[in-house]
Design brief:
The protein is of the alpha+beta class. The protein has two helices and six strands; from the N terminus they run ββββαββα. A five-stranded mixed barrel has the order 1-3-4-6-5.
Length: 137
C-alpha cells in the first residue's frame, strides 16, 4: 500500500503549470512540524495535484492555510549539473481536507461536492521523468 497522510500549512500560494500533454498541474509545498530530541524541526514537502483536485486546492487554499493531504509517493529520477542521476520522491495528492477553523470548513462541502474521483491523474505518471515536469523539485 502506498499512502501518505500529511497535516501542515502551505508555504506559498499554490502554483499552476501546464504539462507537456496539456493537463493542468498544481504544486504546493507543505510545512510539517516534528519534534526531535525535544527540539522543533520543520520538513517541507512538495505535493502535486491534477484536474479537479488541483483546481479545488488552488481555489480554496493560499499561503499559511492548514491542509490535510492524502497522497501517494512516486519515485522519480533527477540529474545533477554534472549528469549524475539520483532518486527523489514526489507526493501526488489523491484527496485533501480542510483543517483548522470554521471559515475553512465552510468551504469543505462545496469543494468536495466538485470532486467526483481522482481520474484526473495522467495515466502512467509513475513513469514520467523529472525532465518532463514543468518545474524543478
Amino acid at each position: 500500500m502506498n499512502k501518505c497522510i500529511f497535516l501542515g500549512n502551505l508555504v506559498r500560494d499554490p502554483e499552476s503549470y501546464d504539462t507537456q500533454n496539456g493537463k493542468k498541474l498544481i504544486r504546493i509545498t507543505i510545512a510539517i512540524n516534528r519534534i526531535v530530541n525535544g527540539e522543533k524541526k520543520v520538513d517541507f514537502l512538495t505535493c502535486i495535484a491534477f484536474g479537479k483536485t488541483g483546481e479545488a486546492i488552488q481555489k480554496y487554499f493560499n499561503k499559511g492555510k492548514p491542509i490535510l493531504v492524502e497522497a501517494k509517493a512516486v519515485n522519480t529520477k533527477r540529474k545533477t549539473a554534472s549528469g549524475e542521476e539520483y532518486n527523489t520522491v514526489v507526493f501526488i495528492i489523491e484527496s485533501f481536507n480542510f483543517a483548522g477553523g470554521k471559515k475553512l470548513e465552510e468551504h469543505s462541502e462545496t469543494a468536495h461536492e466538485q470532486l467526483q474521483s481522482n481520474d484526473d491523474i495522467p495515466e502512467g505518471f509513475e513513469e514520467v521523468s523529472e525532465d518532463e515536469l514543468p518545474f524543478d523539485i
